[in-house]
Amino acid sequence: MMRATPFDRMLRPRSEQGRWARATAVGTAGAGVAFVISAGMLAVGARVMARLPLVPNQSMRHRPDVPVRAVHADRVHLDETPETARGGYLALRQQGGAVHWRLGPVTGRPTPTTVSRPVIGRDTAAALEVGRATTNGFFWAGTPATAHGLETEEVEVDSPVGPMPAWLVRAHDDQGAESDTWAILVHGHGATRGEALRALPLLHALGITTLTITYRNDTGAPVSADRMMHLGAAEWEDAEAAVEHALAHGARRVVLMGWSMGGGIVLRTSVLSAHRDEIAALVLDSPAVDWRDILVYHATALKAPPAMRRLALWMMTSRLGARMVRLHEPLALHEMRPEFYARTLRHRTLLLHAMDDTTVPPGPSRRLADLRGDLVRFVPFPGASHTREWNRDPQRWERTVARHLVEVLDLPVDVEAMDLPVRRPDSPAQEGSIGLRL
């Protein structure tokens, strides 16, 4: 048997009290280690959660997300998913846009797990193939010229971070005079200018010149100093630059129109702009009215602990926390919520929101309308997913928007006599049409 060494005897407790003291010390040390580990994991998780919506990423929306099971001359069979089974119009892309087909509403279910949609338009010569495809919720592809035959100019808007590419489509009145009413169109987070293609034919028919913009960190646009999205807190300056561009090139009044985060950018521009008197109206499509609500909603869906959610929000909104997520300045989330906009908004606003929106919940939009019923008209779209109100019912979307703009702008247009949608979803492809999302 091994004899105890003096060192062993020194460590061995000499009494029951000593044994308890030793156990307490070991337990305390273990708890301390566990606390440090759990706190570290909490901080790491919160940092990841805070950075997710701030990192520019357009590639996610270009990944194939739908299996094509069969391709016929007049119809396509797709795996049934919430997107493919939803009512309304949809487009599919393959090979990075070398293939672009437009599909009508679901007409049947060939098998228990597939849906059938009719082919209503082919924008490319290449054929759709069995395999994986990418849905294009924007429905149209390319530019205003290749999608709709609208004469389009590529211009640059001088923003505080550099020149931003934009599409300019001029409109004229019956006498050929160029319109002095311009609409600034702003896409959403991770989207592209193509998000506005669904609105352009209507706005052109109403005699409104359109400027469809990009903003910092977009593909092809300058980056911000920290290369991070600011959820509209900074991007509104690029929309403001677009307003100034319009006013410097003949506009006398401006309409601001935005989708998703673009809607939030529009709201922020409308209340902070130096040209509020020239802003005549807003049109918001599934807008980000309350970023705190959006962030908490998605964190809860991910089953993130409340402490992690609070820490992530602190990282986004405090000066010290902003450094931890590589933001150069904290986000003013307290100014991006219904109560703030209710106090500061002064423009007539049409607010359309998809009621099946799982990206930007419609609650804050309804709340803003409740708070400012004198200025904001809330129009729910049942059965539509995020920013897909036009896809669900193009005629209703265009008639609603047209009535709002004709009334607010006093346009010489009889909306009830208009044949809507202006460009039908099954319209023949334009010569030179392409399938790229630009």
Automatic annotation (TrEMBL):
Residues 229-409 form the Peptidase S9 prolyl oligopeptidase catalytic domain. One of its GO terms (biological process) is proteolysis. Keywords: Membrane, Transmembrane, Transmembrane helix. One of its GO terms (molecular function) is serine-type peptidase activity. The chain crosses the membrane at residues 20-44. This is Peptidase S9 prolyl oligopeptidase catalytic domain-containing protein. It comes from Brachybacterium phenoliresistens.
